[in-house]
Amino acid sequence: MEKGEGPSLKEINKYACACSIVASMISIIFGYDTGVMSGAMIFVRKEFHISDVKTEVLAGILNLCALIGSLSAGRTSDYVGRRYTIVIASFLFFLGSVVMGWGPNYTILLLGRCIAGVGVGFALMIAPVYSAEVSAPSTRGFLSSLPEIGISTGILLGYLSNYVFAGLPLRVGWRVMLGLAAVPSVFLGFGILRMPESPRWLIMKGRLRQGKEIMYKVSNSPEEAEFRLTEIKRNLGMDENCDDDVANVSNSIKKQDEGVWKELLLRPTKSLQRILLAGVGIHFFEHATGIEAVILYSHRIFAKAGVHDHKHQILATCGVGLTKFTFIVLSTILIDRVGRRKLVLTSVIGMIVALTGLGTFLTLAEQSGGKLIWALVLSIITTYSYVGFFNVGLAPVTWVYTAEIFPLRYRGLGVGIGVAVNRLMNATVSMTFLSMMSAMTIAGVFFMFAGISVIALIFFYFFLPETKGKSLEEMEALFTKAKDSKNVRKEVEIGDH
User: Fold this and answer.
1) What is the largest CA-CA distance in the chain?
2) Where are the transmembrane segments (predicted)?
3) Phi and psi for 453 in degrees, rounded to 5?
4) How many domains in the chain?
5) Axis-axis angle for helices 395-405, 340-367 (nearest 10)
6) Number of neighbouring beta carbons within 10 Å of residue 492
7) Please, are residues 444 and 359 in contact by the beta-carbon 8 Å criterion?
8) Among positive and negative, which fits the CA dihedral 435, 439, 445, 448?
9) 242 Ramachandran zone, left/alpha/beta (phi>0; psi -120 to 50)
10) 308 domain residue, yes or no
11) pLDDT band at residue 349, thresholds of 50, 70 and 90?
């Protein structure tokens, strides 16, 4: 494959692709739970007569509880494997959906949202990790982006569910919307058991024969499979010529769960420090730049712009879901061609322009009382533009990047910490947007998000090296080289002076 080209259909291993698609189904359920709440909140407010504060809590509690799930999922996936972790997530989504669909009062509804939230933490951590571990370097960006396509598909389905069931009686409509996710959760829970386990996890546990068998299936040639197997063994400190199951696993593997917290957080190497900073930083800025405000409260944005009919607000919100899905699909084509770094930098620049425009046009629309049709139209266009730029770069790169940069020994924990930060920022935006909107106007909030996006752009430029085409076992060395190259540039600059 020539430099700069993306993977062709012939290069994408069909078995690895099928595994990634099935694993990504869990993301569809999560996306549905996120998107459907946007419209369901309108009707929940009507039935339970809840305040803006309780609405914010209902919207954000899912992601706050996902903190627990994401931190638990990393260790769980290391103990029971990647596959059974997806099964646990499916069960949590099923239980949460049933409780929300019952929802006799606000408290029970909140409980169901919490249960589903823990499932969200599991799903967000495990789907990209599993996809990254079964894919080859040349197609990893594409396959690791599939969970993000799943989320976008789910959000769009959630919005469509809002529109379809909005005409049902008040006490029935929103309950059907929220409870519907229980059905696919059951099928996925059973279907996932037919998937193979991650070959990297099997080898890490000393189950070499089984890991080798699966590696041959997810590779395009025996030579590629052997090369990937050798790199994994070398990375784990194993004998590269060992092909049988390791009964007495070497200390470095046998104790792979011991001391990981200390090594990653308290005594990390320089390269691990940079990996952790990049992984946590990209997750922080993904939601600090405000996307959840648009996903959950787009009906409020359109209302401020001058769309006052609930049915029309939900219809305009479907446009958000369609835009998100379209640009996520585009990103899967670009991510292995353009590379992670270029894609995310271009994405954030576009977000800055779109957020600034959205703040400006919402100001004009509010001042006119919704009478300026052109301001209303431009508010909708800039909302869609922001969603498009976000989803063509920052959204998929966040999950692909963190799933691939952590060394195998630290991957479960590292990705879990990143997802925890992601959910914390998501919950922060979800649970404060309406309050911030009251304090500084809706336009002021989006100007603030534009400012945060500028900071994100600077961070990404300096701390995110390109990972395109690198094997998972090369990442630690890549971050060491990134640091060394910066030191060399500084020395040259000093010498020039």
Assistant:
1) 75
2) 12-32, 57-74, 86-104, 110-130, 142-160, 172-193, 275-302, 314-336, 343-365, 371-401, 413-434, 440-464
3) -65, -35
4) 1
5) 150
6) 10
7) yes
8) negative
9) beta
10) yes
11) very high
Strand, coil or helix: 277? helix
- Does residue 322 lie in a domain region? yes
Is residue 265 within a helix (H) or strand (E), and if so which, with residue range?
Answer: none
Least confident span in 67-81, 232-246, 343-357:
232-246
The answer to whether residues 82 and 129 touch, using CB atoms and an 8 Å cutoff, is yes
DSSP string covering 308-342: --HHHHHHHHHHHHHHHHHHHHHHHHHHHHH-HHH
Structure tokens that stand for 333 in this block: 């084509």
| Per-residue model confidence (pLDDT) at position 287 | 92
The per-residue pLDDT for 341 is: 94
pLDDT of residue 497: 43
Is the Cβ–Cβ distance between 451 and 388 less than 8 Å? no
Contact yes or no for 426/252 (Cβ under 8 A): no
Residue 251 lies in a domain: no
pLDDT value, residue 256: 52
Of residues 80 and 260, the one with the higher pLDDT is 80
Two structure tokens written together for 486:
């910066």
Percentage of the chain lying above the pLDDT 90 cut: 30
CATH of the domain at 335: 1.20.1250.20
Greatest mean pLDDT among 175-184, 313-322, 380-389 lies in 380-389
CA distance linking residue 11 with residue 221, whole number of Å: 10
CB 348 within 8 A of CB 453: yes
CA distance 50 to 196: 46
Q: Which amino acid is at 183?
A: V
- Whether pTM > 0.70 for this model: the answer is yes
Exposure class string for 425-435: b at 16+ Cβ within 10 A, else e: bbbbbbbebbe
Return d(Cα 10, Cα 17) in angstroms, integer. 12
4: its two tokens: 């700069």
Domain span at residue 93? 14-206+269-485
Contact between 170 and 349 under an 8 Å Cβ cutoff? The reply is no
Comparing C-alpha atoms, which of 83, 109, 77 is closest to residue 96?
Answer: 109
Dihedral (C-alpha) 456, 462, 466, 467: value to the nearest 10 degrees?
Answer: -80
> What interhelical angle do 182-191 and 14-48 show, nearest 10?
160
Instruction: Annotate 156-194 with b (16+ C-beta within 10 A) or e (fewer).
Output: bbbbbbbeebbeeeeeebbbebbbbbbebbeebbeebee
| Cα R_g (the chain), whole angstroms | 23
Q: Which of 203, 209, 185, 199 is nearest to 130 (CA)?
A: 199
State the Cα–Cα distance between residues 228 and 471, nearest whole angstrom.
8
Structure tokens at 128: 């990209």
Evaluated on CA atoms 47, 48, 53, 54, the torsion sign reads negative
